[in-house]
Amino acid sequence: MGCYLNRSVKFFYEKSGKNISDHWSRRDYVIVSLGMTVCFIVIFSNLLVIGAILKNRRFHFPIYYLLGNLALADLFSGVSYLHLMFHTGPWTIKLSKYQWFVRQGLIDTSLTASVLNLLAVAVERHQTIFNMQLHSKMSTRRVFVIMIFIWLVAIVMGLVPTMGWHCLCDLDKCSTMAPLYSRSYLVFWALLNLLTFSIMVAVYTRIFLYVRHKSKQMSQHTTQMRHRETVLNLMKTVSMILGWFVICWTPGLVVLLLDGLGCDKCKVLRYEKYCLVLAECNSLVNPIIYSFRDKDMRRTFREILCCLCQRGGDKSGVSGVNFNTLDHEVLSESNGTDVTSLKQNTH
Questions:
Q1: How far apart are alpha carbons 300 and 54 in whole angstroms?
Q2: Distance of alpha carbon 216 from alpha carbon 213, whole angstroms
Q3: Is CATH 1.20.1070.10 what the domain over 18-346 is classified as, yes or no?
Q4: Which among 333, 286, 335 is positioned nearest to 68, based on CA atoms?
Q5: Over the stretch 119-128, which tens digit does the pLDDT of each residue have?
Q6: Which has the least CB within 10 A, 18, 192, 239, 240?
Q7: Helices 97-130 and 272-287 meet at what angle, rounded to 10?
Q8: Extents of the domains making up the chain
Q9: What does the pLDDT look like over 49-72, one tens digit per residue?
């Protein structure tokens, strides 16, 4: 079976049944407008998060480094998707195979990095909570090794199709959604992300069960109302993390699996771009869940937006870092103490 290395992108699209129109349809305009709007919001919000972490020395802890890396991945995701918006629809015909692989590789790399960073945050929270700490004792060097490893894996995942896992020499194995990709690669990528999601579910479920158990043990030292409030807050946070991840990623992963398994009757082309926009929305939700709920982070955002360079800032000796998603809820309930005393004991 011969290779088609000299054929154009249009050739592979036609062979896979994904025809490219020479002019813009209403659907194309809707998708591009929606996608570009999401991209600009994603880029702006994650730039704020990165700027806040760099600006405020109070955020120089392992969890915030991981959040910064997550924001960097989501920022890269926004830029990659914006690049896709300028190379989609009728513009796709003008792409060379190399440009097409670069376009898809950027998307694969950014989304993989985002998912792996979410997993790293979950594992860090698990370690911190089970050791009854406000902040992880993980060294800065180890954190940066983890961050570099995440990006290496993500980059490799983006380069794998270019390095040979494609269908340029076997048209029967070509995907319908990504006509130059092999169906087997789509199945592998989707299953890898589903595995990552399953591990996240297991980690956060174990955290919740542990906290509920500890809160019952310590309930005699706290009021019933406080005990109930802590458990409800934890349930809300975990539900937000997992719920939004499921909402944003499940449709896209299901469509990828259906395409990879060769489901010709599933009409994946009708939903693919909407699913990709939805997956990109997870990069918008991440800074809201992990950062915007932090009081000190919001305060730093205001300082950045108002261009208030307050040198010296808070001159008190106690750090005001408040990661208000899991650690405060867990530690305040399990130890039966307030957040202030936890901070003082920690530092």
A1: 10
A2: 5
A3: yes
A4: 286
A5: 888 888 888 8
A6: 239
A7: 40
A8: 18-346
A9: 898 888 888 888 888 888 889 889
